[in-house]
Amino acid sequence: MKSDMFGGISRRRFGQLAVAAGAGAALATLGSGARAAEPKRGGRLRIGSSGANASESWDPASWGLSAIMNLAGFGCVYNNLVEIAPDGTLTPELAESFEPAEGGKVWRFNIRQGVTFSNGRTLAPGDVVASLDHHRGEESKSAAKPIVSAITDIAVDGTAVVVTLDAANADFPYLLADYHLVIGAAGDDGKVDWEQRIGTGGYTVAEYAVGARALLARRADYWKSNAAWFDEVEILAIDDVAARMNGVMTGELDVIDRADIATVGRLADRADLVVDEVTGTQHFTLPMFCDVAPFDNLDVRLALKYAIDREEMVQKILFGHGRVGNDHPIAPANRYFAADLPQRAYDPEQAKFHLKKAGMEGLTVDLHAADAAFQGAVDTAILYAEQAAKAGITINVVREPNDGFWSNVWTVKPFVTCFWQGRPTEDWMFTQVYASDAAWNDTHWKNPEFDKLLLAARAELDDAKRREMYGEMQRLVSDDGGVIVPMYANYVSVRRAEVQRGEHISSVSGLDGSKCGERWWFA
Q: Is the pLDDT confidence value at 40 over 60?
């Protein structure tokens, strides 16, 4: 295949498009932990992270809420074709470069040469094909299947992999930065044996206890000369936030994620600790089934949206470590965040108006809540019930057990608490959760106008037109959809002062996009 067929977008234009969705994110400043010197090698980084998972597997198709898989598998042992850098730009990783053709329907990824797996074998295009195919097919149960479902063909062309989609997608390279889509070593049968843990990343697995601990050792032959600075990275899955906080304060841990936002402010005067905070894409939601009464009535949905005080939620639930939401999932960190969309305010009288219009004055609903959804979910539900009472709405808070919440409550009960990590691009988030046929459509919302815009925006290469489309889609979700998004939660982590990092910290997910083991170092 000749490279000149990739002329649908000029290289200059594509460079403009290849600014990551989070490029406009608010980036955390270095503060007292500012970089004092150039990175150097050595030491063992001890990470305490939430996400203990006794049923976790090294198969990336199954990765979800797991500290070990996110920080060890995705963050240290494997690489992707592309990665989202700390400053929000999309950069090549195992793909040395990538180019679109046919207006973004075909993508050519030129595979980096000279990269070796931890078993000594050289990376080849066939490994990329096998790794992506692992998530495809009718029998696939991969969490990444919605991402790769648009792929109609993957072919090897010399040292390149050419991916053909069923329709143009200007954001397709971003999708390949997903933590499920790491690249493993294909066997003689053309499949990847993920339990062998053979990756191209900077570390190998030295010790592993399922769901509890992983000890990683640095590879001397890692192909990135400016990364993987630690001799060892130890990851401890610790769901108890008090235990994580105590561990970093006493020096038993070097880094923790999801700090206790109620008490983290007390660490400001400690010279031995640094608090990192960045507004990312994670958001807390209250999804309701749009096909189940009374939520099938738009005026009821609007009444419930007007009956919540978002400002009070941010102050009392997030202790100021976040921003108010506007009943759609696109965060201020996203590229096409609709900053001009009027902010829905707490208005009990407007809520009463919509209830009267629906003929449902004195509305009573059950809200199923558990802190497994997010830290403070039960308190959120209780506070919401107090706020909604002023609009004449009775919200019965049904406390659900944390164990089994995601399998027995979320997508099962019609009105629940929920958490979303968010996605780096608007299309990614909308496609996985808000499209009518989305596998994770937890509101059962179906809007033909939204679906039409979703397809059009995905293929649109004009930046201004895409911004307009995504703005309208945010409005549709906010005004018609079945989700209440009261707040966007900042990523708040704590590190020992001797742990250093670069100028920027990723807004994609916590602990520098789960890449702290690769990107950080000891002073």
A: yes
